[in-house]
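Please discuss these two lines.
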Amino acid sequence: MFDYNNENNLSMLADYYEFTMANGYLENGLEDTITYFDMYFRSVPDDGGFVITAGLEQLIDYLENLKFTDKDIEYFKSKNCFSEKFLNYLRDFKFECDVWAMPEGTIAFPHEPLMIVRGPAIQAQILETMALLTLNHQTMIATKANRIVRAADGRPVMEFGARRAHGITAATLGARAAYIGGVAGTSNTLTDEKFNVPALGTMAHSWIMMFDNEYDAFKAYAEMFPDNCTLLVDTYNVLEEGVPNAIKVFDDILKPLGKRPQGIRIDSGDIAYLSKRARVMLDEAGYEDCGIVASNALDEYSIRSLLKNQGAKLDSFGVGERLITSRSHPVFGGVYKLVALEDKDNNIIPKIKISENVGKITTPGFKTVYRMYDKDTHKAEADLVCLYEENIEDDKPIEIFHPVHTWKRKTMTNFYTKKLLVPIFEKGKLVYDKPSLEEIRNYTKKELETLWPEIKRFENPHKYIVDLSLPLWKIKNELLLKSKSKNNI
């Protein structure tokens, strides 16, 4: 488990109203009412075509350690608004919910559950904040990282953003999520120690300036690290000093040892122009295999422009603040909504939240999600959100339709399905084998291969189909009509 802060109990990391509502549930005899909550999102960051889910491992760690200490009880007591009955409830707290979720690395789309929680009202309610915090953040970073990796078009991308991240855990878990999204490694040593994400990096400008001249700085570094020599060439003048000094060190130090340089890094200036000139200089000196690394406030758009529009001669990228903060879209809008209750006879009672904003109307009921793949291409064609007990038969055609614009219909044939939500906890007991980070990363790569290129476009991506099954659509429509009638809308 990655310990965010060993001095604090993460069970307390919740919005205050989770606890005031929990106290209210208890005092109104609702604490044992079985509830169903969905965690989902409404739109893809950066107007992209999809997201990559991440953060489930840390949520599992949190749920396995969900408890309240004497210190926590004293805190609630000091607020002078929580009942003694509620304080005793927290003392004896035991997590007993069922949880289903999409495995980390799963491709996901708006308005389908990434996670479902079933359990007693208080238990399911108080985990809302941590569930959203954990899944929202890492999903956002994994998705952003993958956009940048795709822009690099096969060239390695290194996550360099720790110093710009929004705190310790944002830096460390953000680098973990970026690795799921496809980066080659991170500058964050703690992420390597905790999660085995390769730590990468060479030198800063301060290294160069510690020496009397640039050549001496390069020489000292090459003598220490002859097998991994990448030199930062923009401290003074890239073309007049940096690259010539690097070549001289390669000749003087590495060549006699039979070693080859890893690369040079350019961190400022006109990177496209400098990289093209540097490439010529390196090639003419016999270092055609010496890579050129670019850094300095890069993102998917600047990388794509450098490669596609400006003809930059770059072999890899170090990307910092615009990745680790997802600067262009720094909030992932996942929400956690009540969708059903169980009555005393264990009947599931669907619940719906209605809004004048159609996108904020929830989908009621206990659900699951099927992904439909074409049997010939193995590409994902559509997702179908269904009632949990529904079974989609692969050998029978099925008509799907847009849940709002219902005249938009498509008959699916020649397909096979996969259930996207898998059991994580049963009555509070972990039943899921947590994959390694490498397994998650490889799973992500396979997931991406199932998407058509049109969905991966940065501008105006094809809108992937996420529909409701007919039985689920009928329940939602009936609840909408009933609410309209009840409120005379």
Notes: The first helix runs from residue 16 to 27. The first strand starts at residue 34 and ends at 41.
